[in-house]
Write a structure and sequence with these properties.
Distance between the termini: 23 Å
Radius of gyration: 22 Å
CATH architecture of the largest domain: Orthogonal Bundle
CATH superfamily of the largest domain: Winged helix-like DNA-binding domain superfamily/Winged helix DNA-binding domain
Helix content: 40-55%
Number of helices: 17
Shape: globular
Strand order of the largest sheet: 9-10-11-12-14-13
Strand content: 15-25%
Largest sheet: 6 strands, mixed
CATH topology of the largest domain: Arc Repressor Mutant, subunit A
């Protein structure tokens, strides 16, 4: 089992809240992590129910009676979005348990779609629930020598740990096909699998680029509202990230479109048919793919409550990632794939506008050293560790 940083956060959340929702895309390791927590909590037995299993769903025909009889256990409900009506029942059980002194660690809910699930659960379980996201494995969870493998194969455990690059690519291709043909139709949207694959592939080609809905709409032969609905769906499934632009400096002409990333670099490469590291290094998407992996790794390591955006003006001042960390000023982060990174003038102009507390250049090297303008060059793993401290 890969040592996941989220394990500590999950234990803490269960010790402080009666219900915890662990969000993440399919096959990212939610069930493995949940069962690991259950096994380590020897003082509290666990009950696991997979809501995609007809047998387990049948047990919940009378959920209040069945779950009420297991008040002494941590109840793990996998794929909770399949039974959203269960939230009202959980509310009653949690309140009844509180009156009897059972205040925390009652329910661990696992889900692979975020927005709708969070809305449903927050309405029913307000004040009784915590949310955590489990991302694919990131740079802060692997040793430095495995970073290139992580970049090529992505962070889904079965892809990362495959016996070969070819086997990893086959797993990711099957994963994409399964999402398009099985998982998304089960969530309700009636979108042709081939249309959504084309859209997903277009996003991969435009990795780390500004969102241009009109261009995507023309390419797919649909209108802008349809593109927006496709993008909302992929964001909701935790497969695509919309990184918003900085909006606090009204005195500048700022770019208003978000940047869009396919969140897992391995899925980017699978959508584009890139199997080996050599093929990746020779592909135009290499820079955007590296940037996307860095951003996902950093955002998986930031303190709770951190806000992330990018900064770009109409005249070319730009910062790849601006982190607003609670209790601190903004951090300006530039991402370079070169072993000898150089900062453009636009980054320094952007820093004059944003006035960050700290500036960093993330690059593939291991050495940490100062650069011009008070900026520090640092490895990806080093900055992940600094954010996680």
């Amino acid at each position: 089992m890969i040592d996941r940083k989220a394990l500590t956060s999950l234990r803490t959340a269960l010790a402080e809240s009666p219900a915890v929702v662990l969000l993440g895309p399919r096959q990212v390791g939610k069930t493995t992590l949940a069962l690991a927590v259950a096994q380590q909590a020897s003082e509290l037995p666990a009950l696991y129910l997979d809501l995609e299993s007809p047998a387990d769903r049948a047990k919940l025909a009378e959920p209040e009676i069945y779950l009420g009889s297991h008040e002494d256990k941590l109840v793990i409900l996998d794929e909770i979005q399949r039974l959203p009506e269960l939230f009202q029942t959980l509310r009653g059980l949690i309140d009844a348990g509180r009156r009897r002194g059972r205040k925390t660690g009652r329910f661990l809910l696992l889900g692979s779609a975020s927005i709708e699930l969070m809305q449903q659960s927050s309405e029913s379980l307000a004040g009784r629930i915590r949310y955590l996201e489990l991302t694919p494995v990131h740079a802060g969870e692997v040793i430095e020598s495995e970073l290139d493998t992580l970049w090529l194969r992505g962070g889904f455990p079965e892809s990362l740990l495959a016996t070969s690059d070819a086997a990893s690519l086959r797993w990711r291709s099957a994963f994409i096909r399964s999402y398009l043909e099985r998982d998304i139709p089960q969530l309700g949207p009636r979108i042709a699998a081939e249309t959504l694959r084309r859209f997903w592939t277009m996003l991969a080609h435009r990795q780390a680029s500004l969102l241009n809905q009109a261009e995507l709409a023309r390419a797919l032969g649909v209108d802008g509202k349809t593109i927006a609905s496709y993008l909302d769906l992929m964001v909701d499934l935790l497969l695509v990230r919309r990184l918003p632009p900085w909006h606090r400096n009204a005195g500048k002409r700022l770019v208003k479109s978000p940047k869009v990333y396919v969140r897992d670099s391995g899925l980017v490469h699978a959508l584009l048919g890139i199997e080996t590291r050599d093929a990746l290094l020779g592909h135009p998407v290499a820079g955007g793919s590296w940037e996307g992996m860095v951003i996902e790794s950093l955002l998986a390591s930031v303190p709770e409550g951190t806000e992330a955006c990018f900064y770009r003006t109409a005249v070319g001042a730009e910062i790849d990632l601006v982190l607003s960390i609670p209790g601190k000023g903004p951090w300006a982060i530039e991402i370079k794939r070169s072993l000898a990174p150089k900062l453009e003038r636009g980054f320094h102009h952007a820093c004059e506008d944003v006035q960050p507390d700290a500036g960093f250049v993330v690059y593939p090297g291991a050495e940490r050293y100062p650069m011009v303008g008070g900026v520090e060059a640092i490895s990806l793993a080093g900055l992940c560790e600094k954010l996680n401290a």
